[in-house]
Amino acid sequence: MTEQKPCPECRPALGQVIFGAWQAGGKNWGGSIDDTLALAAMRAALDAGINAIDTAPDYGNGHSERLVAQAVRGRRDKTILLTKIPPNRLHFDAVLQSCEKSLENLQTDWIDAYFIHWPSGSFGMKPVSPGHTMDAINRLKDQGKIRFAGICNAWPETIESYSKHGSMDFCQAPYSLFWPHAKNSGLVEYCHQRKIRFLAYSPLAQGILAGRFGQNCVFEAGDHRSRNRLFLPQTFPAVLEALKKLEIFAKEKNISPAQLALAFVLCSAPGVCAIAGARTPLQAKENALARAVCLEAEEISTLLSIAEPVVETLEDGWLPWNPP
After folding, report:
1. How many angstroms separate the CA atoms of 99 and 29, rounded?
2. What CATH number should be reported for the domain whose range is 17-212+256-293?
3. Averaged over 66-79, what is the pLDDT?
């Protein structure tokens, strides 16, 4: 590799909107993900000023990472790459091995932010000591293979258990207008107080808030969105009613529903970033423009009121989908 490595003391200057490459992996999104289109969407996002891409080995068994490598070729030094440790690879040696594989997939010498994808014990897996995992992360930092550490799908007490053994710089969790648990539970404020950058994933509620699903939506086989709680019979009618009002709100501001949903996430709390996926270049450009949308406190309150009938129907639980 010939690209210049960034200063290890400088935290990545993330833009507010991050390109989410979960869809690019293909797995769990049905059979209609097209590699050429996904690659074009990533490049369009970078051309539109988005400077970071979020991926993971679990997104198509490394397929997403390999596509990201193609997208950033020739501009790696200007692109922040975020990837993750698979949930069953939290032992010291496994973390080191997983990092090497991601570096190979991404065709880079360093990863800007390396995340624990799921905390120890998730999905009934055998627990691994947080210190054991963080020792490996600290080793990778010392070697210059990663710059900063983060954790996904974790709440304050879990973040604390890892932070005791090393710096935790980023946190990812689901957060959207229709799924506000991360903010309501205090996680967003916890991160803000500790200077942990909060990254909201699924800010478009996996396409729902972009208006991509109607009354009779049908999912392809293998599309995990069929398990999204927002599509439950007791919830989806409220979703459709709220979407009508959000569409009117967006039209009055001369923006798209997707831009409105992203702007809500970005404006509802300080320092929040939104990880937004896109299947097409047009969607990617549209998402990038959400950075310029400003919502006043009164508008945020109005949006929360519109979403309240949806949120009230949801069962307890911080994940927006039911497990398989």
Report:
1. 25
2. 3.20.20.100
3. 96
The answer to whether residues 23 and 38 touch, using CB atoms and an 8 Å cutoff, is: yes
Q: Say if pTM beats, i.e. exceeds, 0.90.
A: yes
Domain boundaries, the chain: 17-212+256-293
Query: Would you call 221 helix, strand, or coil by DSSP?
Result: coil
Tokens 């710059």 identify what position?
147
Q: The tokens of 250 are what?
A: 């967006």
Extract the tokens encoding 111. Answer: 């990863």
Residue with tokens 């974790």: 154
pLDDT at residue 2 is higher than 50: no
User: 85 by DSSP, 3-state: which?
Assistant: strand
Which residues sit opposite 149 in a β-bridge? 114
**SS3 call for 283:** helix
**Which amino acid is present at 143?**
Q
229 within 8 A of 235, measured Cβ to Cβ: yes
Contact between 309 and 300 under an 8 Å Cβ cutoff? The reply is: no
| Angle at CA of residue 85, ends 230 and 191, nearest 5° | 65
CA-wise closest residue to 320 among 156, 209, 241: 209
Contacts of 235 (CB under 8 A, 6+ apart): 229, 310, 313, 314
Q: How far, in Å, CA of 94 to CA of 80, rounded?
A: 24
Q: Provide the pLDDT confidence category of residue 1 given band limits of 50, 70 and 90.
A: very low
